[in-house]
Amino acid sequence: MQLNEVTFAEATPIDGYGPGFFRVGGTVIKGAALVTESGARGWGGFDDSQPLLDLVGDIDVLFVGTGAEIAHIPASLRSALEAAGLGVETMSSPAACRTYNVLLSEGRRVAAAVLAV
Asked: Cα separations (Å) of 14 from 11, 17, 55, 74, 76?
C-alpha cells in the first residue's frame, strides 16, 4: 500500500472535532460550523439557511453533518439548497469532516455545514 501526504495548499481543512466543538485551521469553533476553502465560522443550524445559499456559485457540493449519527435534514432546507443548484450530501458530522478534507485536498469546490457531536 502506498501512502501519500495530504496537502491543502491555501485551503482550510478541518483539523479535528470533539464534544461540542470543531477545530479548523487551528481555531476552535464551539457548536455548529460552516467550513469552506477560505475558512470557517459558526453556523446557526438547520434554521440558518442563508449562509448556505450564499455559497451558490462558489461550491459544487455541500456536506451536511447531522451530529454523531446520520439523520434527515428538514425537507424545506434540502429543497431550497437543491433549487439553488447546490449538491447536498447528508451524513454524520465525523463522516462529513473526513469527506470534506479528502475532496478539499483534491482541489474540489466543497463546503461542510456540520452540527457538533
From this structure: 10, 8, 18, 25, 27
